[in-house]
């Protein structure tokens, strides 16, 4: 009876919340994702926690998923919206494969697609409540980019979402350099996740790390000759 | 957009629901209290609802919302079974619930736990909280009473329990939650689903273990006075 009144903020400018189809606030959320480019590809890390308000409710949530041949998507924010984005992407990849033309969507193209999706949802006041990190390798070219829930997007050598923006990016700016080895890349990412565990209340002490390697063909041919 | 207030105050839902996998199937459990504000509208409700022969769902949150979602999913699953030519899997049931919960997240206020057994994956439990996230887990807890059970399950849950161990764990857990959560109460109902079929059990309040500060049930004060004890206040 009184529950409905509690849920809606008093905001007459936007009309009664129950009228329109809008996502107002997240329920089950994932926290920071951090990623960097290293010598042979992309490293991306996130913890496996799904928070429900202040409760650390789920401890085996996958915040990152590879898809297509070339890409890796990580997301913080509302988990149900991330699951929905994965569904959109599966469809995208499917239609791309159906052309059967030997070409496949690379991470740069997917990043652009996601930017359009996020920005258009924001314009309709019905955002997908996520900050996305899109990384991958196509034809030997590494790519790492990010899109926020309001459509802010850019490409960089190292990115982070959520609390990671405040805690991980300064560390990455200081210590990242071109041609990081795999070990150094992992150590750097672990340092970021370490700090996040100390200072982010919604962090849990269980990590998932994805390693995206150069597609080997061109590389191996060079080495053998 | 007032993020701070909403992120830190998830809505409480009057119920305790649990789903647990064991080696051979699943056990679902729930309390039986439905409240309207402070009044107990139904003290013997059945919150474990059938979707198909082999898949059941525990409902929490708004009674109306959870009932209508279950009804739609039961309807879709029935059609799916006819088209498929065999029983639906628990994964399909869970995904149908997710679709409805996610696509209507602005209007619905219900958290559900789907549990079932199918020949491909055996016993599975899927949690679908507010918002429509789908998450497969070895066990799941939900409803307002679940707040009191996170620590309990962290300690008491073990992989590879037998059917009886699993059911006892569920009954104990719901009973503990009822002891502390005002929005949970009544009896403990369980549903066990495995390859052999479905078994429903019922545990009335007086058959449950006593917890801290709880007293042995008595029929009347008169029994106490007439018994050998001369000090009825000191029990």
From TrEMBL, chain A:
Pfam families, per database record: Proteasome
Coiled-coil segments on the chain, per record: none
Location(s), subcellular: Cytoplasm; Nucleus
Family matches, as InterPro entries: Ntn_hydrolases_N, Proteasome_alpha, Proteasome_beta4, Proteasome_sua/b, Proteasome_suB-type
GO cellular component, one term: nucleus
Membrane-spanning ranges: none
Biological processes, Gene Ontology terms: proteolysis involved in protein catabolic process
Keywords: Cytoplasm, Nucleus, Proteasome
Role of this protein: Non-catalytic component of the proteasome.
Entry similarity comment: Belongs to the peptidase T1B family.
Protein name as annotated: Proteasome subunit beta
Lineage of producing organism: Eukaryota, Viridiplantae, Streptophyta, Embryophyta, Tracheophyta
Automatic annotation (TrEMBL), chain B:
Catalytic activity annotation: Cleavage of peptide bonds with very broad specificity
Record InterPro entries: Ntn_hydrolases_N, Pept_T1A_subB, Proteasome_bsu_CS, Proteasome_sua/b, Proteasome_suB-type
Sections of the chain in a coiled coil: none
Annotated SUPFAM superfamilies: N-terminal nucleophile aminohydrolases (Ntn hydrolases) (SSF56235)
CDD domains registered for this protein in UniProt: proteasome_beta_type_6 (cd03762)
Record-annotated active site: 15 (nucleophile)
Subcellular location(s) per record: Cytoplasm; Nucleus
Biological process terms in GO annotation: proteolysis involved in protein catabolic process
Primary localisation category: cytoplasm
Alphabetized UniProt keyword annotations: Cytoplasm, Hydrolase, Nucleus, Protease, Proteasome, Threonine protease, Zymogen
Keyword Cytoplasm: yes
Pfam families linked: Proteasome
Statement: the UniProt record of this protein carries the keyword Protease: yes
Signal peptide residue numbers: none
Example of a GO cellular component annotation carried by this entry: cytoplasm
GO molecular function: threonine-type endopeptidase activity
Assembly mode: Component of the 20S core complex of the 26S proteasome. The 26S proteasome is composed of a core protease (CP), known as the 20S proteasome, capped at one or both ends by the 19S regulatory particle (RP/PA700). The 20S proteasome core is composed of 28 subunits that are arranged in four stacked rings, resulting in a barrel-shaped structure. The two end rings are each formed by seven alpha subunits, and the two central rings are each formed by seven beta subunits. The catalytic chamber with the active sites is on the inside of the barrel.
UniProt function note: Component of the proteasome, a multicatalytic proteinase complex which is characterized by its ability to cleave peptides with Arg, Phe, Tyr, Leu, and Glu adjacent to the leaving group at neutral or slightly basic pH. The proteasome has an ATP-dependent proteolytic activity. The proteasome is a multicatalytic proteinase complex which is characterized by its ability to cleave peptides with Arg, Phe, Tyr, Leu, and Glu adjacent to the leaving group at neutral or slightly basic pH. The proteasome has an ATP-dependent proteolytic activity.
PANTHER family: ATP-DEPENDENT PROTEASE SUBUNIT HSLV, METALLOPROTEASE TLDD
Protein name: Proteasome subunit beta
Organism this protein belongs to: Gossypium darwinii
